[in-house]
Amino acid sequence: MGIGFYFPTKAGATTTWVALKQPVFPAVEPVDYPEQLTGETAGGTLYVQDKGPLREKFQLKFVRLTVTDRDNALSFFNTVKKSFNTFEFEDRNGVLHTVRWMNDFDFQFVVEGRYSGTIQLRKETP
User: Fold this and answer.
1) For residues 100 and 80, what is the distance between their CA atoms, to the nearest angstrom?
2) Model pLDDT for residues 71-114, shown as the tens digit of each residue
3) DSSP symbols for the chain
4) Which of 26, 126, 111 is nearest to 64 (CA)?
5) What is the CA radius of gyration of the chain?
6) In-domain check, residue 104
7) Is residue 61 part of a domain?
8) Which of 93, 99, 55, 110 shows the shortest CA–CA distance to 76?
9) For 81-113, b where at least 16 C-beta lie within 10 A, e where not — what string?
10) Residue 97 falls within a domain, yes or no?
11) What does the pLDDT look like over 23-57, one tens digit per residue?
12) CA pair distance 89, 123, nearest whole angstrom
């Protein structure tokens, strides 16, 4: 099953992007508590203050997309305005996640008519 991007939701999408060529493996899906303050005393006692919720991310690496696919991805990026708007992302298993696009649009020209780049998504907690 292929991945897809749907704004604002898959059921009521006004803008979509389903890449013709799927991301390459490995599928990177880190989970982290990104906002923790830590300190250690002279005696070696570790103190941790948890300031934020658990965050799930998706990192999708695309290799050698066509110009059309790259342009469609850029159009979607401009619609959601990077991290400004949430949208639904359908993963390889057909599960929908509400996410935000977190990185710049950085698809590089790698070979005649082909572009490669990475998309980083952050799952929104309900």
Assistant:
1) 8
2) 999 999 999 999 999 999 999 888 999 999 999 999 999 999 89
3) ---EEEES-STT-SEEE--SSPPPSS-B--EE---EEEEE-TT--EEEEE-S--EEEEEEEEEEEEHHHHHHHHHHHHHHTTTTS-EEEE-TTS-EEEEEE-S----EEEETTEEEEEEEEEEPP-
4) 111
5) 17
6) yes
7) yes
8) 99
9) eeeeebbbbbbeeeeebebbbeeeeebeeeeee
10) yes
11) 888 778 877 777 788 899 999 999 988 887 888 99
12) 9
Domain range for residue 114?
A: 57-126
Q: What is the pLDDT of residue 77?
A: 95
Domain count for the chain, please give it: 1
- For residue 42, being part of any structural domain is answered with no
Predicted confidence (pLDDT) at residue 115 exceeds the cutoff of 90: yes
Specify the pLDDT at position 25. 80
Q: Rounding to the nearest 10 degrees, give the CA dihedral for residues 85, 19, 12, 75.
A: 50
Q: What phi-psi label fits residue 34: left (phi over 0), alpha (psi between -120 and 50 degrees) or beta?
A: alpha
